[in-house]
Amino acid sequence: MNIGQAAKVSGVSAKMIRYYEQMGLIPPAHRSEAGYRHYAASDVHSLRYIRRARDLGFSIEQISELLVLWRNCGRASADVKAMALSHVAGLKAKIAELQTMAHTLERLADHCHGNDRPDCPIIAGLAEPAATAPPASHKAPRFGIDTPASSRHRAAIAAHA
């Protein structure tokens, strides 16, 4: 199928398909004599996998590691689980950060009269220095860094590159 058909069937835009091909997430498409890309059902399956991983917030680097695991029938499920839990920790940290931002803005908005006067606690609050950052122990682990199999994943990715 051509790139337009692959895009429609996979739910991934043609632009993103070309990008994923350029990033090495999918192999280069076979080309017709006229130079048009042609995709097999397995390519579309990979595109759906990538799309689902993107929908769950995984980065391109993370998806690359997940694809290596997906294609490796000898993988340990513990490796996949460790990657997923590491990603969950990162998502929870981001959620906490966004909740803090929302609470700060709500507090500032609660103190604003919203009238014609120029004094505004929101503007004043934005001009204040930010609160100190949380201690390093509260940072979420970086994906693939704090997992026992991360070095094996990088080696497998390098071997397939």
Automatic annotation (TrEMBL):
Domain HTH merR-type, residue spans: 1-69
Keywords from the named record: Cytoplasm, DNA-binding, Transcription, Transcription regulation
Superkingdom as given in the UniProt entry: Bacteria
InterPro entries on file: CueR, DNA-bd_dom_put_sf, MerR-type_HTH_dom, MerR_fam
SUPFAM superfamilies: Putative DNA-binding domain
Annotated localization: Cytoplasm
Designated name of the protein: Cu(I)-responsive transcriptional regulator
Record organism: Acidovorax bellezanensis
